[in-house]
Amino acid sequence: MVSTPHPEDHRSGFIALIGRPNVGKSTLVNQLVGEKVAITSPVAQTTRNRLRAILTMEQAQMVLVDTPGIHKPHHLLGERLVRSARSAIGEVDLVLLLLEGCERPGRGDAFIVNLLRQQSLPVVVALNKWDKVPPANQDEARAAYAELLADSDWPVHCCSALDGDGCAPLTEAMAARLPQGPQLYPPDMVCDQPERILLGELIREQVLMHTREEVPHSVAVTIDRVEDMPAKGSGPGRTAVLATVLVERKSQKGILIGKGGAMLKTIGQGARLQMQTLIDGPVYLELFVKVVPDWRSKPARLAELGYGQDA
């Protein structure tokens, strides 16, 4: 991380995106940065790595920390993901609380609000998925969340992470509440995650999109090898990626591979197209599926996969 001198009125800092699972944190990160740096899925609890995306503007640089959704954990991996999200609150300059504007606030929202009230950090609230709220119901939705946020002076913005509506005022509000400081990263950098982690996340995203409900949360991806393949003849060179998809049961392996390997082929094709955009060149992708029983509950296996005590 580097610091670049900037005028005295320049602001910079870290912003944690906090909210329940599937509230749209990763979609909002991608929308604000203008590039795909976080995987998205209709399946809850998609985010596992505490990804940091970088949004650089003329007057500010924001480091957006996309955290796992805060939920009631059911295994050791879930416990560590929630711990990761909660610990992020104490390591940033500002919290962006995402709430699902198209749904009435629930106990999970109230839990997070009370958690944030115990902190001294500034908070900005985004009522996401506002495009799904009919105009006739918007006043009622605002009133419901005003009751939830009573006794706080947190500014509230309505937005849609999907289409970008309302995101510009939200960005300005966040920038204004950051401390004065220089750029922390080069201006052309949009993510601080190693390329291998991003490649693995692109594969996991395709698994989330294409497999049945019993599979997604039991999946982890390891990138075993990445190497440049020289050009043959007049054709371009390619990047070869070899990866292993871990599941917990044989039945899940069968679902992932599919009849005649059709499902694994579909997953690989989707991931390869995304990888080519990330790498900006042709990709050869080879996928393997391996059964590791109960890997989500084994500390040693979680550590190998990068989900350590503070993951």
Topology as a string of helices (H) and strands (E): EHEEHEHEHEHHEEHHEH
Could you say what the CATH topology of the largest domain is called?
Rossmann fold
The first-level CATH class name of the largest domain = Alpha Beta
Number of domains: 2
Share of helix, binned = 25-40%
Order of strands across the main sheet: 2-3-1-4-5-6
Which whole number gives the mean pLDDT? 83
Can you name the CATH architecture of the largest domain? 3-Layer(aba) Sandwich
Give the C-alpha Rg: 20 Å
Number of helices: 9
Instruction: Assess the beta-strand content as a share of residues.
Output: 15-25%
Main beta-sheet annotation: 6 strands, mixed
Query: Residue ranges: pLDDT <50 for 5 or more in a row?
Result: 42-48
Span of the ends, CA to CA: 20 Å
SS elements, strand count = 9
Structural class by sheet pairing and helices: alpha/beta
What is the approximate shape? globular
